[in-house]
Amino acid sequence: MVKKMLPILLLLILTSGCLGLGKPEVLSYKSEWGEITESYSEIITKMDVKNPNPFSIPLKAIDLTLYINNIELGKGRSIGDATLKPNAITTITISTKIDNSKIPEWWVSHIKNGEVSELLLKGNLIFNLIITEFKFPFEERDEIRTDILRGFKVDEKMNFGPLAANVKINPRWGEVKSDYTQIMLDTVIDSDVSFRLKGIKYEVLMNGIKIGEGYYDKDVEIGRNTKFTLELRLDNDKLDDWWVSHLKNGERSEVEIIVTGVFDLAGKTFEVDLIREKTSFRTEILT
User: Between 20 and 30 A from 159 (CA), which of 11, 32, 131, 231?
Assistant: First the structure.
């Protein structure tokens, strides 16, 4: 009879606070990166939960989901014993695995949103009261901001064979599709003597991973204040590899862009690096 009455007594205590006893309370939680593999990235969350009651309360399940820009990246589960000890603070460990194949989808949303992402970690602690369940909701919000193209602006005098000309380049994002991302380089070259741009070679690397490369013809007559736009194309399928390197490097990435113009002057062909720069950016997904 006592055993049959215990679940009902627990339910009354947790839902009404009678007998001076109370509901479990999440006091704090902290997350850090766990195992990072090619297929998934693990977040380990440790939650300190206070049980003010003189009896143990078993935790049936953890319902936890990670979203970035409303894209579901992974779900969590508890690790080890998750029973709340009586009159004590119990640390519950949760593992959330991010599906790395969803990183290109997040990247598209991030760039389209002006390099801003909203992170939401949302879930419930589900306590087992045998005849019913008691859910304790929790959530954490944060913001991810980057400025990846910072540092690739050019304003300098360059040598083009025997000539010198002023070059200005302003980078910006172009089309952002599911399979590729454009970097547009709005370029101005000011030269007293005419010569010709014939083609462009480029490479874009993030943490040494080549996510963009190519060559294309670009026929432009260069003279006084000649304006034109160059296009670099990034392969979004390479972004999950970059993501792994980014996390393993402490959420830091080094970006390198090399853009080489192929020019013609008086029948002679020569190459000039319009951009050969490195910069870096950080994220603080887990702070």
Answer: 231
Token pair belonging to 216: 């294309």
Q: What is the model's pTM?
A: 0.85
231-261 burial, b at 16+ Cβ within 10 Å, e below that, comes to: ebbbbbebbbbbbbbbbeeebebebbbbbbb
The side-by-side arrangement of strands in the sheet containing 25-36 is 25-36, 40-51, 88-99, 71-79, 59-68, 116-128, 133-145
Q: DSSP state, 236?
A: G
Whether residue 106 has pLDDT greater than 70? yes
**Could you give the CA distance from residue 250 to residue 246 in angstroms, rounded to a whole number?**
7
Helix axes 239-248, 103-112, angle to 10 degrees: 90
| pLDDT attached to residue 115 | 97
Q: At 63, which amino acid appears? A: D
Query: Does 212 have pLDDT greater than 70?
Result: yes
